Amino acid sequence: MNALRIFYASIVAAALILAVSVGYVISQTSGSETSPAATEQGAVSEDSTGATQQLVRDYLVSNPEVIEEALMALQNKRVEEARSQQSETITRMQDQLFNSKNQVVLGNPDGAVTLVEFFDYNCGYCRRAYPDMMALIDNNPDLKMVLKEFPILSEGSVQAARIAVAVDVVAPDSYSDFHREMMTRGGQADRAKALDVVRDLNLDVAAIEAKAGESSVDENLTEVQSLARALDISGTPSYIIADEAVPGAVGFDQLQQKVSAARKCGGNTLSC
């Protein structure tokens, strides 16, 4: 599929190059009024256009790598533009990202460096990344880790997230234990599994079930969904640190490097 996409993109790129070349020749040879001289010049320009098209075609056929280089340059430019726009969005929405009432904080709540994780309890990569998250907290006493419930994989994910939000409200001191159990126990995450964890932690099941059905839980999940849309986040895990978004389970080492860079730069950017 990627090869086919590149092939079609190459055709488009070649067409664009030809169009630009033709446009340039015409703009250089045509006038605003028609005269015998202009008519003669127009005939010459048509010949020149055909010659230019043939030259461009011959060059591209002989040097197809030029198209690939142009496409790569365009792709890199688009990536940088998207990254810059994402950084601006992070800065604009930093209060909701880093200090919302609708979030859980692990580690140091007053930490100089903040790492945000968008996660889903049914995300296998999130589960595998859980030990990395705990290691980051252990190795960085100044790290504030913000957890955003982002249930996108199934209805069971939504059910588990609602119970998790309720646990944080009803029994905030037990949330870390609840989160650990949800991340490390086998089986699909859903309401039943989440409530099993609640019972095993000897929490108030009735109070948590009641809270899970309240509109405040809807507001919590809606806020996270809005943040994800604004930041163009569509997968889990996804991280925000300082002014940068980091998609995917990139591992402890890469996240630690970014935490260190953010610390060096005062917590608000990774480049200073």
Shape: elongated
Strand content: 5-15%
The count of helical stretches stands at 11
Number of strand elements: 5
Structural class: alpha+beta
End-to-end Cα distance: 40 Å
SSE pattern: HHHHEEHEHHHHHEEH
Major beta sheet, strand line-up:
1-3-2-4-5
Instruction: List the quaternary state of the chains.
Output: single chain
> Helical residue percent?
55-70%
Which residues form runs of ≥5 with pLDDT under 50?
A: 1-9, 18-40
Q: Which sheet architecture does the biggest sheet show?
A: 5 strands, mixed
Rg, nearest Å: 28 Å
Mean pLDDT: 84
Describe this structure in words.
The chain has helices spanning about 1-30, 35-60, 65-90, 95-100, 125-140, 155-170, 175-185, 190-200, 205-210, 215-230, 250-265, and strands spanning about 105, 115-120, 145-150, 240, 245. Residues about 1-10 and about 20-40 have low confidence and may be disordered. About 65% of the residues lie in helices and about 10% in strands. The protein contains 11 helices and 5 strands; from the N terminus they run H-H-H-H-E-E-H-E-H-H-H-H-H-E-E-H. A hairpin with a 2-residue loop joins strand 4 (about 240) and strand 5 (about 245). The protein is α+β, with helices and mostly antiparallel strands. It is elongated. Strands 1-3-2-4-5 form a 5-stranded mixed β-sheet, with helices on both faces. The longest helix has 28 residues, at about 1-30. Helix 1 (about 1-30) runs antiparallel to helix 2 (about 35-60) and helix 1 packs across helix 3 (about 65-90).
